[in-house]
């Protein structure tokens, strides 16, 4: 027996067992986290992120449990609740700073959706779940994650495309945003491996040359990604020709392309020029294409590259060659040759150099090469008739070909016999009969001895079986006997099919016969098909014990090599209904109260079913030909089963049954209250009571947006605020009938929020200017009291007005304004501060002054302005709107003449009208030296002509100083008055100069700042007051000393002749030998001449050019006859004419006069050689001759006293004569007349220097 003490011990033991068992159940219940966020979750700012927790609780069926989930956040040491689960899938949200920015969903799979993540979301989010087992013990589990927001880098400001020049320094700026703050580096796109500027928003780019040009990148990166912006830096530089075609030699008729490309920015304009004419142009590169070139295209071609920064050019040369032409080919004894005779062909051509090879071809096939142009063909046969061609060639290539047709007569011959043919009906029959002979034989076609046609080919289209037979072709050309050939033609045709019955009807289980007849050549095969499946290959096919599956169309197909023919018959099978099916018109097996449901009974049968019986729960409801039955119930009924049986003349079919359920659509049990008003922080309770079968599902939405905010017949919202006001909707549906809904209008009264202080325009005023502030706020009811504060103190203002007017009559410091709005519920939030600034229009306190600087010196202009905000300074020049600078100081390191003008500095800060000041900049520069054109001398004066120097942007020239004095003397200068002749040419005359004296001439230009550099030249006057020197207008004749020497020589010559004649007469008279007196015969002293003529004659390949000893004749002029007022005559005669026209240039066409040289080794500054260039161009095959009268070159007088001539330049007369190929070129005596250039005599012996 158990005592009470034992009983107590047993009870304690059972209690301990129960407690430990409960703990065992808790810790062995199998709680498992299936899915949790990581320790850290990264979320992009501005996007949504979902945090998911999922767990599993494994318990037996006898255990009871309860779960409750709560989500909370930790920010620092504080913990705030997000949501608490109150039902299976319903959470109650707690108040926190994330309200309205998240959602919580799920049962054991919990999802926290954070919307529009911001940097303020960075905190720890946790899920805590509690559960009970058997109502005894409670366990708790939790999992947390730390949310880290981030933003990808974004370059929000970068440079735009930049245009720079070489030597510029460009400062580039780039900015980027992101979290963490991005690091900025600079790279060039074509070399991304090189970092130009690490960790810097600024990049200083030094423009050293064109290689700096390219695409640059500003790259921003942080730990989450990279972003970049690109921009293009364009470098301007002078053009440089990178490539030009080399000198080229091409045959006549070729297609030539001359290439030229240049670098530069802006892209230079490339132009090809020849003989002063632009032939083609392009940007960056230009290709000059010459098609079918001729000898006339020989010459130099100039490529010029130009942009706004400069110009450069290069030349190349093209030489054109030509080949044999006018080729002829003759036949001996003629073009018609009798079979077996000899044929000789003779080929000639006109070529330079002479053709040295002749290539012979027969009918396009090569025969042989000969050197004399003769080709012999012995014992000619018919195979050697046809076209013979000769192509001559020389060292330049093949010339023009010549052809001749050779005809050999022969009797007819058939090259091949006819062959038997087999064709298909409707095809084309074509028989060919090839016959040879000369003249060509006539071919005749017959069929079964009946004439058909005359032709090499007999053709019959769309043949039929009647075209079969024997065909013969006969060839005859009246030379020899006719020849013929025969062939037999067989014609095949496609099958033809017939069926006795097109349709037959049988009952199922009976038999059916299918009969098909076919004909054709060759004999066709027959086969039966049903639905493309073969069922037999006999003409007659028998079907036994047919079923409904045998019904359908049967096809009989007959086919041979020519095709397939088919015919169709139909088999109809009668059978009782099968496959009975009972359906509804809606496709569903349910119907609402008072709605109609139509049952439809169908079955497969032939003939179709004509009787339908409907029953319910074994009770017949309807038996008729109708296949439909209508169901309509006024109230709810239990589910029912409906059955249908179809019938036709062959019997009844199988039954079909369905079950029908009855439903009720939703309706209100009590009409809801729809208009509700609450104050903020109170609770909203909305009720929607409904009924229906099945039970309706009730959902709540808001403001017309289908976003479910609650379920069930009640919707409760605690702690309301202004955002909870709006239209709420209750919707009830159960899938039966219409959806039931009701609308609730909820109005929330709240204090003013979002108070805002605003103005129209800028946040600043000037003295005596008014500015109106407007205070606004969001509240219900609207605010009716407004208060304004200035720098924290209450402003004097009428409370009922929402505006405040500011007006200042004196200067003031920046002021801070705020406002507060109040309604019936109390005062609201204070607005943000609005700073009002005093504004001051711009004024220029230190303006520019007129400045004058020397050329090449620096220009510095200063302009200082004040105002609030600080004004912006811009510099312009003249009427141009282009901005030169935006700094207070405008400077240029090296002044140029074109920098002179009126400059303007403008100050603006957006307050009232901008102000400006202007001034004048003068560049102090002096004129360039004029260009002396000629010095015309007469007795006793000298007339000088000069040309105005280039001025560009320089100051205008106000006058000239023309003066002379004896060379290397201390005499005073003698000046003369300058007279304006025309355009930019001036002149003046010096009189009473001493003869045989060297003078120095200076021409000096003046402007407002003074004199420029002089143009200086020396000249010498001769005896009698005539002048000689470096003038281009000279007087002819020899010096007195020259004429004395010539007179003495002529007198001595005549004396010698008299002595010889007297001696001969004495010898004849006395019969003795002549007295041999040693007398020295001397020619008259020759006038020393120093004359150089450069005669360049350029023409096509192999064109002869000859210049005889009479081509150049040097004439002398009489002494003492000056030529007054003569000017340089520089003549360039360019004569160009077309083919087949003759061209000459007479002696009046070109007169090239003397050019005066400097004496005593003094250089001539600013002077250039005067060249006379005569270019004569004519068409092909035209002659041009140069005889002794062609060129008359007058003597050049040598200098006296043996003084050396330094710095003198030869006078070159350049005659370039260009003509087309095959044209001879000469220059007649009238073509070029080059007059002598007089020179002073040298005391030493003179030398003739004549260069051609």
TrEMBL record:
Residues 153-236, 239-319, 324-407, 411-490, 495-574, 577-661, 666-745, 752-837, 842-922 form the Ig-like domain. Residues 1024-1033 have a biased composition (Low complexity). SUPFAM superfamilies: Fibronectin type III (SSF49265), Immunoglobulin (SSF48726). It comes from the Eukaryota. One of its GO terms (biological process) is cell-cell adhesion. Residues 1243-1252 have a biased composition (Acidic residues). Its main location: membrane. It is found in: Membrane. Keywords: Disulfide bond, Glycoprotein, Immunoglobulin domain, Membrane, Transmembrane, Transmembrane helix. It is a single-pass type I membrane protein. Residues 1012-1035, 1096-1252 are annotated as: Disordered. One of its GO terms (molecular function) is cell adhesion molecule binding. Residues 926-1025 form the Fibronectin type-III domain. Residues 1114-1131, 1154-1180, 1187-1221, 1228-1242 have a biased composition (Basic and acidic residues). Pfam families: fn3, Ig_2, Ig_3. PANTHER family: IRREGULAR CHIASM C-ROUGHEST PROTEIN-RELATED (PTHR11640:SF31), NEPHRIN (PTHR11640). This is Immunoglobulin superfamily member 10-like.
């Amino acid at each position: 027996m158990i005592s009470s003490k034992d009983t107590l011990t047993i009870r304690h033991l059972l209690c301990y067992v129960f407690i430990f068992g409960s703990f065992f159940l808790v810790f062995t219940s199998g709680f498992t986290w299936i899915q949790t966020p990581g320790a850290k979750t990264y979320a992009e700012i501005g996007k949504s992120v979902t945090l998911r927790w999922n767990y599993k609780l494994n318990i037996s069926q006898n255990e009871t449990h309860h779960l409750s989930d709560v989500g909370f956040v930790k920010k620092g040491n504080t913990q705030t609740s997000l949501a608490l689960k109150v039902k299976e899938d319903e959470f109650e949200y707690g108040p926190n700073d994330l309200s309205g920015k998240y959602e919580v969903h799920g049962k054991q799979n919990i999802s926290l959706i954070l919307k529009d993540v911001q940097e303020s979301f960075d905190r720890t989010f946790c899920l805590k779940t509690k559960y009970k087992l058997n109502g005894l013990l409670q366990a708790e589990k939790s999992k947390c994650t730390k949310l880290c927001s981030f933003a990808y880098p974004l370059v929000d400001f970068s440079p735009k495309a930049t245009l720079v020049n070489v030597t510029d320094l460009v400062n580039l700026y780039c900015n980027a945003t992101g979290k963490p703050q991005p690091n900025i580096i600079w790279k060039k796109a074509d070399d991304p491996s090189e970092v130009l500027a690490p960790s810097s928003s600024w990049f200083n780019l030094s423009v050293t040359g064109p290689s700096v040009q390219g695409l640059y990148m500003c790259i921003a990166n942080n730990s989450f990604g990279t972003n970049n912006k690109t921009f293009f830096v364009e470098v301007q530089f002078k053009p440089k020709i990178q490539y030009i075609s080399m000198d080229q030699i091409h045959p006549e008729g070729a297609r030539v392309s001359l290439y030229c490309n240049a670098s530069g920015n802006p892209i230079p304009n490339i132009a090809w020029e020849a003989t002063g004419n632009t032939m083609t142009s392009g940007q960056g590169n230009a290709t000059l294409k010459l098609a079918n070139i001729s000898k006339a295209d020989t010459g130099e071609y100039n490529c010029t590259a130009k942009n706004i920064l400069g110009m450069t050019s290069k030349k190349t040369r093209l030489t054109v060659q030509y080949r044999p032409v006018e080729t002829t080919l003759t036949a001996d004894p003629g073009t018609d040759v009798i079979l077996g005779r000899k044929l000789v062909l003779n080929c000639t051509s006109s070529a330079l150099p002479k053709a040295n090879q002749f290539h012979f071809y027969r009918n396009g096939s090569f025969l042989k090469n000969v050197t004399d142009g003769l080709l012999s063909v012995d014992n000619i046969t018919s195979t050697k008739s046809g076209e013979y061609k000769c192509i001559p060639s020389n060292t330049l290539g093949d010339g023009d070909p010549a052809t001749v047709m050779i005809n050999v007569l022969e009797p007819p011959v058939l090259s091949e016999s006819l062959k038997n043919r087999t064709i298909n009906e409707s095809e084309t029959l074509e028989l060919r009969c090839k016959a040879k002979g000369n003249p060509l034989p006539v071919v005749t076609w017959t069929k079964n001895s009946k004439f058909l046609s005359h032709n090499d080919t007999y053709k019959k289209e769309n043949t039929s079986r009647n075209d079969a037979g024997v065909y013969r072709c006969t060839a005859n050309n009246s030379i020899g006997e006719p020849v013929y050939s025969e062939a037999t033609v067989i014609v095949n045709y496609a099958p033809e099919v017939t069926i006795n019955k097109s349709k037959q009807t049988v009952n199922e289980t009976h038999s059916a016969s299918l009969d098909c007849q076919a004909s054709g050549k060759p004999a066709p095969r027959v086969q039966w098909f049903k639905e493309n499946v073969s069922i037999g290959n006999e003409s007659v096919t028998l079907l036994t014990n047919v079923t409904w599956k045998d019904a359908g169309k049967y096809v009989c197909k007959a086919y041979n090599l020519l095709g397939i023919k088919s015919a169709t018959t139909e088999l109809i099978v009668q059978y009782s209904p099968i496959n009975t099916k009972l359906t509804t018109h809606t496709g569903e097996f349910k119907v609402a109260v008072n709605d109609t449901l139509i049952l439809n009974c169908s079955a497969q049968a032939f003939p179709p079913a004509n009787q339908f019986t409907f029953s319910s729960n074994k009770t017949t409801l309807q038996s008729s030909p109708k296949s439909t039955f209508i169901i309509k119930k006024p109230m709810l009924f239990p589910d029912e089963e409906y059955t249908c049986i179809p019938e036709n003349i062959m019997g009844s079919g199988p039954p079909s049954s369905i079950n029908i359920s009855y439903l009720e659509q939703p309706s209100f049990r009590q009409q809801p209250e729809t208009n509700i008003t609450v104050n903020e922080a109170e609770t909203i309770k909305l009720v929607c009571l409904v009924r229906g079968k099945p039970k309706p599902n009730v959902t709540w939405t808001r403001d017309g947006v289908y976003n479910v905010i609650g379920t069930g017949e009640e919707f409760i919202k605690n702690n309301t605020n202004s955002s909870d006001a709006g239209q709420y909707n209750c919707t009830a549906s159960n899938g039966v009938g219409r959806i039931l809904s009701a609308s609730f209008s909820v109005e929330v009264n709240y204090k003013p929020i979002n108070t805002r202080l605003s103005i129209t325009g800028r946040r600043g005023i000037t003295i005596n200017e008014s500015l109106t502030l407007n205070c606004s706020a969001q509240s219900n009811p609207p605010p009716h009291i407004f208060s304004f504060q200035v720098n924290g103190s209450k402003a004097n203002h009428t409370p009922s007005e929402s505006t405040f007017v500011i007006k200042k009559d004196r200067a003031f410091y920046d002021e801070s304004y705020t406002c507060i709005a109040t309604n019936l519920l109390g005062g609201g939030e204070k607005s943000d501060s609005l700073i009002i600034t005093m504004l001051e229009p711009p004024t220029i306190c230190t303006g520019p002054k007129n400045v004058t600087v020397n050329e090449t010196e620096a220009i510095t202009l200063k302009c200082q302005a004040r105002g609030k905000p600080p004004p912006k300074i811009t510099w312009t020049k003249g009427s141009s709107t282009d901005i030169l600078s935006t700094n207070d100081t405008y400077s240029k390191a090296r002044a140029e003449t074109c920098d002179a003008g009126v400059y303007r500095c403008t100050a603006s800060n957006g307050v009232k009208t901008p102000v400006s000041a202007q001034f004048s900049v003068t560049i102090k520069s002096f004129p360039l030296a004029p260009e002396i054109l000629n010095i015309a001398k007469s007795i006793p004066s000298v007339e000088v002509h000069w040309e105005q120097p280039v001025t560009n942007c320089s100051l205008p020239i106000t006058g000239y100083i023309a003066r002379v004095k004896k060379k290397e003397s201390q005499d005073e200068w003698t000046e003369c008055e300058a007279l304006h002749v025309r355009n930019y040419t001036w002149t003046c005359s010096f009189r009473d100069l001493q003869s045989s004296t060297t003078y120095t001439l200076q021409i000096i230009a003046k402007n407002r700042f003074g004199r420029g550099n002089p143009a200086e030249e020396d000249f010498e006057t001769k005896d009698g007051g005539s002048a000689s020197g470096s003038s281009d207008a000279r007087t002819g004749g020899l010096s007195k000393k020259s004429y004395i020497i010539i007179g003495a020589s002529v007198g001595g010559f005549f004396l010698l002749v008299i002595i010889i004649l007297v001696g001969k007469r004495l010898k004849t008279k006395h019969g003795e030998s002549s007295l041999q007196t040693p007398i020295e015969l001397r020619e008259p002293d020759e006038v020393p001449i120093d004359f150089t003529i450069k005669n360049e004659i350029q023409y096509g390949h192999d064109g002869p050019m000859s210049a005889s000893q009479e081509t150049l004749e040097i004439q002398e002029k009489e002494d003492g006859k000056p030529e007054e007022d003569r000017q340089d005559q520089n003549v360039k005669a360019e004569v160009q004419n077309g083919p087949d026209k003759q061209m000459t240039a007479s002696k009046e066409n070109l007169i090239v006069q003397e050019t005066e040289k400097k004496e005593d080794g003094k250089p001539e500054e600013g002077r250039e050689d005067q060249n006379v260039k005569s270019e004569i161009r004519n068409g092909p095959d035209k002659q041009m001759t140069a005889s002794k009268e062609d060129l008359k070159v007058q003597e050049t007088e040598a200098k006296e006293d043996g003084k050396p001539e330094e710095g003198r330049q030869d006078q070159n007369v350049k005659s370039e004569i260009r003509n087309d190929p095959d044209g001879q070129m000469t220059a007649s005596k009238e073509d070029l007349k080059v007059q002598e250039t007089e020179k002073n005599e040298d005391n030493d012996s003179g030398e003739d220097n004549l260069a051609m």
